[in-house]
Specification:
This protein has 34 helices and 33 strands. By secondary structure, the chain is an alpha+beta fold. The strands form ten sheets. It has a five-stranded antiparallel β-sheet with strand order 4-5-7-6-11, sandwiched between helices. It has a five-stranded parallel β-sheet with strand order 24-25-28-23-29, with helices on one face. Strands 2-1-3-8 form a four-stranded antiparallel β-sheet, covered by helices on one side. β19 (548-549) and β20 form a beta hairpin. α28 (781-797) crosses α29 (811-823). It starts with a helix and ends in a 17-residue tail after the last strand.
Length: 945
């Protein structure tokens, strides 16, 4: 029992460095806390308790000694796993009947997301599925907890939604401090107790970014839900000459709080006054009424009131009843309100008024002892009944029963109510049409194009101007979204398109009596995304957060959309900068060099001038990326050991360009994981992509990464869809690692930025020019951006001289960055490329060793694959190439490797293949070449084959 328990707790907590493992005793309602290094103690404690009661462990690492018995979300300090609890139908254990009927059905629910669980437990009466993180997410603040909670809620929402489609109910257990069962213990909920066991252990581990697409779908759900729950009016102010807009005085008659605001304006606190403006400003003549109601205030100023009205109408919707009652002193007025819970905001009282009038008419009829059949069939009664049928069914049925009692037929009564309701809809539609200049779309049109064409017309008409809302990118419809403090490019979902069509067009169904308002057509929204009319959408390629050079050498420096460059300059994290001189003078150039070299980067101990030059090249790259034709290389920020400042340098580079620290993501091990992660990253249009955790032992060898580095577009299947998307690759690529070794394909696509503190404990350094460098950089970001722009503009003013050093596949990058650095007297650019290649190219190093031994033993004689395999084994060479299998397996792998090395030159020897007719199979030999032919001394080694 204890063995499986220990394995389980090790899975969850072994990677943790702090926090407590918290075992909960359900019988005593008490937690036992253990350090992460005390797993054995925790196992013994859980095993002892399991004999007599239910035992749980917190899914998160916890603080010791929680305030409550089991602890709360505020006690959670380390997020270890995502979890979903699935109860299985069992009348003895669960009262609910709408549960998955068996284990197979419960397992089917997990297919709602594309990620296979790390562990699946059978808890005795259901399944517990866990997706364990590679390392716990530290939750040191409310912001951290909110991010982790959002991730957990997103995964649970996806799975619960899928279960709901099967009519099964799953509990919402999205609690960071959730208690979960422990395998090796017993479930005492039923008699006899049932063992908690492991159903499946895949060994898979995940990073939070792996669930990004699921989180995005969840965010869209939350956004749509928030939109659906908003009051009728949008954040856009209504037209004040709209006769259907409510009248402020009429609202005040129904809302005691609004009446109080009108009467007590002279003493009204500012928050209440501002909330009042958010409501009456949306009424007929809202601005004039706002001034009229505000004049009694002693400090009333017309200009200030205008500003407040503008802000109140555009920052959010009208203030809600719940907010008024809880936060704005409305309890006295709202507690006795007849409309409480019938509306969500006083602005909706214009909707309640017809209901109140309908109730008045119905009450008068029901209390009239002299009522006749004719009284029950009057027009005003039917209009009241048409309202009551949707809002107050009890009163509607009372009126209908009265009509039946007086001799009327129920069918005749219902038919008349239906006719009147349709007539009222048409009246409202005609009223709205007079003041609604949106394009009208008939929903019940016979042909799809009859809806599609005007739908695209509506999109084009509403999406014009300097601030369009949706764009096209790589053949898809996209929008701007905010994620983790960044403005990113995100695919428009069908739900979002549905909402846009509802706001940007007037949908209706056509009947004999005229037009009846309707919701948008979902098929139209879907078709517009699958086959977008790109000509009706502005193009968007990337988002920037700082002034940046355009392709033509001009500077994009105004926030907003720049259609000619397909760039959106976000206001989020943007920095205002002073104009840069067309020809910077010597003083400006000196200041710019000083800010970069003597302030920002001075505390980084670069090993050589080339390392410093490449760091500056990475810093400049986001600002000149559009002037570079083709791809850009990987910048390997490396050091001999941890704590040297690699991530800090990546943060500095990112902070200057984006205003935020680097968004670091780990380098996945599998090709499939890498492709999914890279596609997800590039779809966001990041300016910088930072990979972390390159393996310290072994070789960094990723064919997909190598392919991406030499491509200006990246194609892959969109997660959750069957279509292929091709997105631009315009990012600056960074990778942090300790003494990395690269495959040849990656080594020739990489430039090195090496930091060497020459200290066995680099993290203990204390002497810095700027001890809090990131804080300093953020505070001086404007000056840093201006310095970067000045150095680049100096190069532009000098007619853009090209750099002399080059690198295959990245010639344009080398010419531009080399030219900028040269003009500004920053030396070392690409000077170490040959030495770096020899050091980083682990594959070439191994083959050079092997070729030297081969030449010494066999000279230029032809040799078979079997003999070369034995030679490699005897001298312990090419271990990775040969693998660790049988002799036959190693020979096969060796043959494939030799075939791939034909005509390659190592240590002045070319590998050639020939076939001996008298001997089965291919044979290989070495041919001595001159030193000048050896590619390891020639730049050609870096060029594409």
């Amino acid at each position: 029992m204890s063995k499986i328990t220990k394995q389980y707790l090790t899975h969850l907590f072994a990677e943790a460095e702090s926090g407590q493992i918290s075992i909960f005793d359900l019988k005593r309602k008490k937690c036992g806390d253990f350090k992460v290094s005390e797993i054995d103690k925790a196992v013994r404690y859980a095993s002892k308790l399991a004999k007599s009661c239910d035992v749980y462990v917190h899914a998160a690492l916890m603080k010791p000694n929680p305030k409550s018995g089991r602890g709360s979300i505020n006690d959670a300090v380390g997020f270890t796993c995502l979890h979903v609890d699935i109860d299985i139908l069992n009348p003895k254990a669960h009262a609910e009947t709408n549960l998955p009927p068996d284990e197979d059905a419960a397992l089917e629910v997990l297919k709602a997301i594309p990620h296979e669980p790390s562990l699946i437990l059978h808890t005795g009466n259901g399944l517990l599925s866990l997706w364990i993180l590679r390392e716990p997410e530290i939750m040191g603040s409310d912001e951290d907890r909110g991010r982790c909670s959002r991730l957990l809620k997103a995964v649970q929402y996806a799975i619960r939604s899928y279960a709901a489609s099967k009519s099964w109910k799953l509990d919402n257990t999205a609690d960071l401090a959730r208690l979960i069962r422990i395998p090796g213990t017993l479930n005492h909920k039923t008699t006899p107790p049932k063992p908690v066991s492991v159903v499946q252990d895949t060994g898979k581990r995940y990073n939070p970014d792996d669930f990004e697409d699921i989180v995005r779908e969840y965010d869209e759900h939350v956004e749509q839900a928030a939109h659906d729950e908003r009051p009728r009016t949008d954040v856009t102010p209504p037209s004040h000459d709209d006769p259907y807009a409510p009248k402020a005085d009429e609202l005040a008659k129904e809302c005691a709080w609004l009446d109080h605001c009108r009467r007590d304006a002279a003493t009204l606190p500012e928050p209440e006054w501002y909330a009042m403006l958010s409501i009456i400003g949306r009424c007929q003549d809202g601005r004039a009424v706002s001034h009229e109601w505000s004049k009694g205030y002693a400090k009333y100023r017309p200009d200030e009131t205008n500003k407040k009205v503008d802000h109140a109408l555009t920052a959010a919707g009208p203030r809600s009843c719940a907010r008024i009652r809880s936060d704005l002193g409305g309890e006295t007025y709202c507690s006795s309100c007849d409309h409480w819970r019938l509306i969500t905001s006083p602005i909706q009282l214009d909707r309640v008024s017809p209901l109140a009038e309908a109730r008045r008419i119905a009450n008068a009829l029901l209390q009239d002892e002299t009522a006749t059949l004719n009284s029950c069939f009057e027009d005003e009664v039917f209009r009241a009944a048409a309202v009551l049928e949707n809002e107050d069914m009890e009163m509607f049925e009372a009126v209908r029963d009265l009509a039946k009692k007086k001799g009327g037929r129920v069918g005749q009564f219902d038919k008349k109510v239906l006719t009147v309701r349709r007539q009222m809809k048409r009246e409202r539609a005609r009223l709205l049409q007079v003041h609604d200049d949106r394009i009208g779309i008939q929903k019940n049109a016979v042909e799809l194009p009859d809806m599609l064409n005007p739908a695209w017309d509506a999109i084009r008409e509403q999406n014009l101007g300097d601030e369009p809302k949706i764009f096209h990118r790589a053949g898809s419809v996209v929008r701007l979204a905010e994620r983790d403090g960044r403005t990113i490019i995100d695919l428009v979902s069908q739900t979002h398109m549905f909402g846009l069509l509802g706001r940007w067009a007037r949908w209706y169904t056509q009947s004999d009596g005229g037009e009846i308002p309707a919701k948008p057509d979902g098929d139209v929204a879907g078709d517009m995304l699958e086959i977008p009319n790109l000509g009706d959408l502005p193009r968007l390629e990337t988002v920037i957060a700082a002034p940046t050079f355009a392709k033509d050498g001009s500077i994009i420096q105004t926030p907003g959309y720049h259609g000619e460059h397909a760039v959106y300059f976000t206001r989020l994290n943007s920095a205002r900068t002073r104009p840069i001189a067309m020809v910077p003078d010597a003083s400006a150039i000196r200041h710019a060099r000083s800010m970069i070299l003597e302030e920002l980067l001075v505390d980084f101990p670069f090993k050589s001038s080339s390392d410093r030059a490449h760091a500056i090249a990475a810093l400049l790259l986001p600002f000149v990326r559009r002037m570079i034709i083709g791809p850009t290389p990987l910048h390997s920020i490396e050091a001999p050991m941890p704590g040297s400042g690699k991530t800090l340098l990546a943060d500095v580079i990112s902070l200057v360009a984006t205003g935020l620290n680097a968004r670091i993501t780990t380098l996945p091990e599998s090709s499939e994981e890498f492709r999914k992660k890279l596609t997800s990253e590039l779809m966001r249009a990041p300016e910088i992509i930072t990979w972390d955790n390159a393996p310290q032992s072994g070789v960094v060898d990723n064919a997909d990464l190598a392919a991406a580095l030499t491509s200006t577009t990246w194609s892959d299947r969109v997660l959750g869809h069957s279509r292929i998307i091709s997105v631009p690759n315009m990012a600056c690529w960074l990778l942090t690692a300790n003494n990395p070794r690269y495959s040849m394909e990656l080594a020739r696509r990489t430039v090195r930025v090496r930091i060497d503190v020459q200290n066995d404990q680099p993290w203990n350094r204390t002497e810095f020019r700027h001890p809090k460098l990131l804080e300093w950089a953020l505070g001086h970001r404007q000056d840093l951006i201006e310095s970067v722009l000045t150095l680049i503009q100096h190069w532009v003013a000098e007619s853009k001289p090209e750099g002399e050093a080059t690198i295959g596949s990245f010639e344009s990058w080398a010419r531009v960055l080399g030219g900028i650095l040269s003009v500004n007297e920053i030396d070392g650019f690409l000077e170490d490329r040959e030495q770096f290649f020899l050091e980083a190219d682990s594959e070439g190093e191994e083959w050079r060793e092997f070729v030297l031994v081969w030449a010494s033993i066999h000279g230029e004689s032809s040799v078979g694959v079997e003999a070369l395999t034995r030679l490699a084994d005897e001298y312990d060479l090419l271990p990775v190439t040969r693998g660790g299998g049988t002799v036959r397996s190693q020979t096969t792998r060796m043959g494939l490797a030799l075939r791939a090395q034909v005509d390659r030159i190592y240590a002045n020897h070319r590998i050639e293949r020939n076939r001996d007719l008298h001997v089965k199979g291919h044979r290989y030999r070495l041919v001595l070449v001159s030193a000048s032919d050896d590619p390891q001394t020639e730049p050609a080694l870096w060029e594409d084959s």
